[in-house]
Structure to design on (410 residues):
């Protein structure tokens, strides 16, 4: 398998983290997103929306949207529940991540760590952080009754939410307000075979 | 089954439209979202994020996030592909809808049709419509090669995208720029058992 991705992107970290757990090998192709490569005609034949990550399967077919890639890779493993209701709950948290957290948290990380544009980051933080804080409060509420988001064990919902939120403090969010989230982030990072974001793209250890 | 929802909400229209196709009955409970009911302690026990729609199953369990509800209801039917790759492609378009269209299109519809706040609508349109137009351009590109989004036939991906986009013109988007999308919107609306948004919450005809 090939992953077309961009360093420092939470969305691109997701398949790398899951594949580390699954023990699945992959090759990495770094895409010059800032230089416009992901919006080229060539790239849009893989993902018409012109974004990373894209997964290229061994038979040459493509998949886009980080959370759809997670579901594909996890299908048939304990990382995506077999039970119809538990699977739908897992998906619910992944849709929540894309709708309610990816923009206020992931985009902020982009302006700070990738574009290194402090002024734009401050402006985006002022506008978007209330939505991010509301999302964290929702996660904190869920964690009062559960250790994980998709069921009784860690699933792709935790992978998706972890990739998006573990860098939130770097973007200026006060995560001290969310002690259960802190504990959950530590639980995810303590899993056997976990790889930190710095190792994304380097294959499976 | 019970659906907790809000009239004029594209997200709440989704399960109603799918259940019309599946022939599944439901009861509707209108939630006073503008009055704060969805953010009450009681409601947050059903959905910790305090948003509609919520599906209550006959056994009393709850599901939130409109697209996760669609996947749950469609599971085992032709509306959610059985093939692993096709199912992931279907999910990809549903994640795309929540990440790239729900805010610039669905939120605009909210300010115009639900809150009837013309000034706020104009402000949001100025800020968000470039993202919406980029999303429509992506859909238009996909429709050059395909009649539907999730595979060879209509799926929950089309339901999710239709609910979000069929009211875009009302919000000020120039949909004349997207002729394939116009044709696809007409294909969805021409399906047997289709119900318009005005009929949401009224059960299955």
């Amino acid at each position: 398998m090939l992953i077309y991705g961009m360093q420092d992107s939470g969305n691109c970290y997701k398949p790398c983290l899951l594949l580390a757990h699954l023990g699945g090998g992959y090759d990495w192709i770094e895409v010059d997103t800032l230089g416009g490569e992901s919006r080229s005609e060539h790239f849009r034949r893989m993902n018409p929306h012109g974004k990373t990550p894209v997964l290229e399967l061994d038979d040459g077919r493509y998949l886009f949207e980080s959370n759809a890639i997670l579901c594909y890779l996890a299908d048939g493993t304990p990382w995506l529940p077999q039970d119809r209701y538990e699977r739908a709950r897992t998906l619910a948290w992944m849709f929540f991540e894309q709708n309610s957290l990816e923009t206020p948290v992931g985009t902020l990380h982009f302006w700070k760590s990738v574009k290194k544009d402090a002024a734009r980051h401050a402006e985006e933080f002022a506008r978007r952080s209330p939505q991010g804080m509301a999302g964290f409060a929702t996660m904190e509420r869920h964690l009062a009754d559960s250790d994980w988001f998709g069921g009784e064990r860690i699933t792709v919902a935790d992978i998706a939410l972890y990739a998006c939120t573990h860098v939130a403090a770097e973007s200026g969010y006060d995560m001290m307000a969310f002690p259960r989230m802190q504990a959950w982030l530590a639980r995810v990072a303590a899993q056997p075979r976990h790889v930190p974001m710095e190792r994304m793209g380097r294959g499976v250890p």
Remarks:
- Chain A has a mean pLDDT of 95.
- The longest strand of chain A covers residues 2-5.
- The CA atoms of residues 41 and 50 of chain A lie 9 Å apart.
